[in-house]
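Write out structure tokens for MMPL family transporter.
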Amino acid sequence: MIEKIAHTLTRKPKLVALIAVALLVPSVLGAVATRINYDILTYLPEDLESTQGEALLEDPFHDAAISMLIVEDMPSGYTDRLIQDIQRVPGVSNAIWVSNLVGIQIPIDMIPADIRNMFYSGDSTMMIIQYEKPGASKETMAAIDQVRSVCNEHCFLAGFSVVIKDTKDLVDEELPLYVLLAVVLAFAAMSLTMDSWILPLVFLSDIGIAILYNFGTNIFLGEISYITKAIAAVLQLGVTMDYSIFLYRRYEEERSSYEDNRDAMAQAIEAAFTSLSGSSLTTIAGFLALCFMQLTLGRDIGIVMAKGVVLGVASVILVLPALLLIFDGPINRFRHRAFLPRFEKVNSHIVRRSKRYVALFLLLFIPFVYAQNHAGVYYKLDEALPQDMASIVANNKLKSDYNMASTHFVVLRSDLSATEMNALESQVKDLAGIDAVVSCSSLLGTGIPDFFIPEAVTGMLKQDGYQLMMINSRYATASNQVSEQLRQLGEVVKRYDPEAKITGEAALTADLISTSSVDFKVTSYISIAAIFLIIAVLFGSLSVPLVLVSTIELAIFINQGIPYFTGSVIPFVSPTIIGCVQLGATVDYAILMTTRFREELNRGLDRKAAIAVAATASDSSIITSSLVLFCATLGVGMISRIEIISSICIMLARGALISAVVSIFILPSVLCVCEPLIAKTSLKWRPRSKSEKSELSSVR
């Protein structure tokens, strides 16, 4: 089957290329139509109380998206006119200020203390803006833009929805730079390690086609996260480029055996198909392990990237041969000397001192396993954003001027009596760190008659058998203080309504912390087990996967342990993604060297000579592959102002180099020393020696 496909593809390369280009049209349309989700908290499991509470805020309260507008040094008349302008903005369902509650004619000193403390601080005042759609929706994004357009320079719009909007704008601004820098740096890396100036351009064109196919087919998922959107292209470029290199090198080998380059390419496709299918399985397994995260952001990244690897392999088999044949002349015409060092002396040194390198291999686990387990991690999402971003500046004003470091929303039954609500609110106010409590009951308690409270306000706080309590906390999201506060708040609230739901950014983040700690362990175990099994089947061995996975795991421990020694604090999602992706993407380096090692053993070389030849033959491929992954991700890591994206990319870039160094300098020694054990625990590892054959015959 593959033989016929290879023959057909190589006979009409221009037609194949034309079809590939034509398919880009629906791919681009699909990519444009795919929704991008900028709210990480929406990926929390739906069975959590905080996410269930968030669903209730959206329906029936329509409070899932709320922002706070601070107006500084402006007269009450301006703020009153401003709130009327804001209420007319499409997508805004409600806006609340003192004019809704008591009117602007009443002097500030005569406004009830609870309302005054909530809406006034020094020379500034605050209003609450409620949107019709969820915070990450297009409608709310557009509404936030329009709200800002009717405000002057004395206004500061704060809230999680506004942070999402600014994040979207920043990602959209930076994304073209990510791709451009990845392409330029990857081209530079390949130009240094390959012997043609045109060949990298052909490879990049093929991978670019595969990336567009991947983004186009995301439409079947409905939406992807902004993190996936930001890193998928550069990550697919980095992890699938070595498939292109493998096919081309096989094509170069076959050219000497055939007069017609098309026949040589057909043979290269046949030979490469099995190898690429097997090699890509480890990378796919690493990405699919992310799908087992409770935080479904992992599933989002895992599915998109696993699909990207499959499409990358497909493009290498189906499209790249046509491009190579079409551009065969320019590739050969613009050749140059590859700038790669020779590694014979280095490998000879490593083999002679193999026991020392094995000892180093074992010793390195001790400090870096400890460092990896004790590296600092943060969960507060706004810490990953530029602190000069408008929404972050506004949020900081909200915290400093109004003591609103976080806001909790409690959804309760509406049939609780006034006595129960007064007792509940009194106990909530007594909790450490609670600054203010707002509910229908608390507003009535200030002496405002029920009929004086506007319907818009009661509609915000009471709907369809539920009532809402808004609680301002002085404790920051993701802090130990707010976690304890939420625990105590839950105990108090559940006494009055066992079915009550506590939600808000702090509650959602607390669940994010507990969920992520489990995710890290689960995904690590699954990726290790899956890749162990693939390598075991590939080599027919129990010991080879142990050696290879242990080697790359050391590289991962070093990568994840470096922040501990540098005192850096990294975003919570980075270790989980790196643990799976680095293992899946770079274990191929170890597989490549081990495969060549076995080939040399089967040619009759002893283990020291075999590993020296295998290492020398593999080092250039490992360096080229790791440099492409390094360059594709490093540029994004250096320029991105969003630290979640920057951290993931820098760690991937660093991980590629560390895996390459470990594979070049440590793996040969480990394979050489462990070879006798590997031979006993593997099927068809190497031909038996004469003494082994005679011993076997005597036993029989």
